[in-house]
Amino acid sequence: MKISASIYSNNKEKSLEALVRELDAHIIDMLHVDCTDNEKVFDDIRQIRNFSSTPIDLHIISPTPEKYIPLIEELGIEYVSFQYENLKSLPVVPSNTQTKYGLAITSATPIHVFEQAKATYSFVMMMSTVPGVTGGVFNHDSFQKIIEFKHHYPTTQIEVDGGVNDQIAFILRLLGVNAVVSGSYLLNHESLGAGMLSLHKTPNGNGKTAFSIADFVTPLKYLPVINSTTTDFKTILQTIEQYGQGFVMFTNTEGQLTGIVSNADVRKGLVKHLANLNAIKGKSLINTNPVRINETESVADMVKLLNNLNFIVLFLPVVDSNNVLKGAVLLNHLTRV
Q1: DSSP string, 260-286
Q2: Which pLDDT does position 131 carry in this prediction?
Q3: Quick one: CA dihedral 140, 141, 145, 147, positive or negative?
Q4: Distance between alpha carbon 292 and the CA centroid of its chain, in Å?
Q5: Class of domain 2-201
Q6: Beta carbons of 150 and 124 less than 8 angstroms apart
Q7: 305-323 pLDDT, tens per residue?
């Protein structure tokens, strides 16, 4: 997951050049620049180009941002997002350009507004605080909105801006977010290097966190779940293939988790019956006591649970106090560089 440093969130009175050079020394991925209908922002970008080749991540809040496209093209700005709620109409962006354009939306805006942009816009910017205001508090609802967007637009890149700290960055990595903007947390950290490291680091499983598993669980509607009475091998294989997540979960008529079958379980079954594959019984593949986690537990609890396992899991079923299946935490994105 890439880190985009919001350069106007600097409260340490460093010059623009000193700040950017320090960020570059720590190999920052992008420099985030907010433009609230202010052409002078492009003077800062022009200055940055004199001593840095780090990609610019420009966020424009204006009813008519298309007026800045000539400047965007002149400066070769790599990433540009337009704030949807301020637009008079969706700007037509150049097709023969190296610039990647995105649509920024607030927590209150439904994701379907991206439908009109999906053909020509490369990414969405999820605003989890008030656009253009530094130091805001991350909106918990953003997690589920990200999950929803990812399932409707699986090939579209997702960037998140607003209130991102180390705990939130870890959850966003779990959700497959491609980039985050960090302002106050990173630039006003006691040590810029330590701040950047913490945004990439997995929590150690100690201490309290502000979020429970329920905040960022992937809900059942996006997951492979079948009734435990349906255990034929063909259905299991077809369900795993259909969802492409490498597993299927089973529930009884009360919705309680009764077991799982993973790719590893299928492989073991195949190896065991190599001489007669027709002898494989789906029921024999089911792990009836899988690792699971309660929806009320925290990120720290989850990390501690994973660290105590002597095997690797790529997902965790999430249940309530009655073992009713609520969803799953998908862990495969943590392996992505």
Answers
A1: EEEHHHHHHHHHHTTT-GGG--HHHH-
A2: 66
A3: positive
A4: 22
A5: alpha beta
A6: no
A7: 999 999 889 999 999 999 9
Question: Which CA distances in Å does 53 have to 3, 24, 41, 48?
Answer: 15, 9, 17, 8
Report the length, in residues, of the chain: 337
Which CATH fold would you assign to the domain 216-335?
A: CBS-domain (3.10.580)
Please tell me the distance from the alpha carbon of residue 29 to that of residue 41, in angstroms, as a whole number.
Answer: 20
Report the side by side order of strands in the sheet with 315-319: 218-219, 325-330, 315-319, 293-294
CB 145 within 8 A of CB 110: no
* Average pLDDT rounded to a whole number, residues 323-337: 85
For the segment 230-239, the average pLDDT, to the nearest whole number, is 91
Selection from 113, 116, 117 nearest residue 80 by Cα: 117
Other Cβ atoms within 10 Å of 313 Cβ, number:
17
Instruction: Write out pLDDT tens, residues 154-196.
Output: 999 999 998 898 889 999 999 999 999 999 889 888 888 898 9
Tell me the domain boundaries of the chain.
Answer: 2-201, 216-335
Gap between the Cα atoms of 301 and 163, Å rounded: 22
- Amino acid at residue number 118: K
pLDDT of 256 above 70: yes
What is the DSSP secondary structure assignment for residue 155, as one 8-state letter? Answer: T
Q: What is the mean pLDDT of residues 148-159?
A: 96
Q: At 100, list the tokens.
A: 């990647």
